[in-house]
Amino acid sequence: MAVTLKKIQRKNPLNPALSKWYLTQESAGSVGLTEIAKEIEGRSALSLGDVQSVLSNLMEVMPLFLKLGQSVKLEGFGIFRVTVSSDGTATPDELNARHIKGVKLVFLPSVELKRNLGDIAYEVMQ
Fold it and tell me: Would residue 92 count as lying in a domain?
């Protein structure tokens, strides 16, 4: 099975008269925890309920550690961490939590995971 790519045209924001064509991934839908649990069940000695319980507990426990400022490293998968962006102030004394503009969850995939994605097949739609 191949990842489907489509052709799209984008204008140059600095010169709207100019545009170029690019490839972008066509969505193939999404997979939820149930589908992932079923796939893991078929590859292990665990029951579907056991796998679902582990994944469900992972989703409940990860935020606890992230809220403490810790990164969550899942060996062979990657690292999750929280980052913040803030407005700037003239002096450090003025700066406080009210200046936070946004919070993001960042995922850094492991070398192993990236390597396993190295042989993706692509199909360009006409």
Answer: no
- What is the distance between the alpha carbons of residues 79 and 110, in angstroms, rounded to a whole number? 7
Position 21 in a domain: no
H/E segment holding residue 113: helix 111-116
Residue 56 lies in a domain: yes
Joined tokens for residue 5: 């790519």
User: Is residue 28 predicted with pLDDT exceeding 90?
Assistant: no
DSSP state of 121: -
Question: Is 12 part of a structural domain of the chain?
Answer: no
pLDDT exceeds 90 at position 119 = no
Average pLDDT value for the chain: 92
Q: List, in sequence order, every beta strand (DSSP E) within 1-126.
A: 3-12, 15-25, 72-74, 78-86, 100-109, 122-124
Residue-range definition of the domain harbouring residue 46? 31-60
Q: CB within 8 A of 41, min separation 6: which ones?
A: 47, 48, 51
- What's the average model confidence in pLDDT over 38-54? 95
Q: Cα(120)–Cα(105) distance, rounded to whole angstroms?
A: 26
